[in-house]
Amino acid sequence: MAITDWPSDERPRERLLKHGAAALSDAELLAIFLRVGMKGKSAVDLGRDLLSHFGSLTRLSHADAREFIAIPGMGKAKYAQFQAALEMARRALKEELTTRDLFAAPTAVRDWLRLNLAHLPHEAFVALWLDAQNRLIAHDELFRGTLTQTSVYPREVVKSALARNAAAVILAHNHPSGVAEPSRADEALTASLKQALALVDVKVLDHFIVAGNGPPLSFAERGLL
């Protein structure tokens, strides 16, 4: 049955307009993006197919063109539209971080990190450089490793801090394994970087681990800074 044949109060678009986007399921949100279904399947059915194939919205959001268009009912135009929507979300979050104290927008920080790190098949270490008002100056991917390890050199992190004229930093890296728990090596690295950056008056405000679909783990909240 086509969505247009559903009762009006059950249609995703009408429900969004009445109750807000947060009231919709992942499949319903995808249905609004897809707009139409295909023979024998509604747009909601196609949304469910996408989620079933990729396992989560996070994995879907980072599917490459080949994977995306391999799903029946998808195509290059839909892939381009989806990627454009995701990039707008990334830019909106970054804009918020550059104009506000990051501590006034903790959810935006976590969302930005997830959008940029959660999908990576390799381990990456990034720094969000902040000014004296805790607003984002720039972000750098400082090091990239393998699935199991990465090498982070405090000297290079300090050089980057000086180049950005930063007053503070939020560090982050991902765990491709999907487990967000910090290792002893993570804790030791954080302590080493905190000590090195203190020598140039750059404060480490937090260190996040991004893994899987859950919220990034905060070292500050765990009392590990």
* Number of separate helices: 10
Q: Please bin the fraction of helical residues.
A: 40-55%
Straight-line N-to-C gap:
55 Å
Mean pLDDT equals 83
Whole-angstrom Rg: 20 Å
| Biggest sheet layout | 5 strands, mixed
Instruction: For the largest sheet, list the strands in their spatial order.
Output: 2-1-3-4-5
Low-confidence segments, ≥5 residues, pLDDT <50?
none
Class from helix and strand fractions? alpha+beta
How much strand content do the residues show?
A: 5-15%
Describe the structure.
With 225 residues, this protein is α+β, with helices and mostly antiparallel strands. The chain has helices spanning 12-19, 26-34, 43-54, 57-61, 65-69, 76-99, 106-117, 154-164, 184-198, 219-222, and strands at residues 124-130, 136-144, 168-174, 203-210, 217-218. Strands 2-1-3-4-5 form a 5-stranded mixed sheet, sandwiched between helices. A hairpin with a 5-residue loop joins β1 and β2. The model has no long low-confidence stretch (mean pLDDT 83).
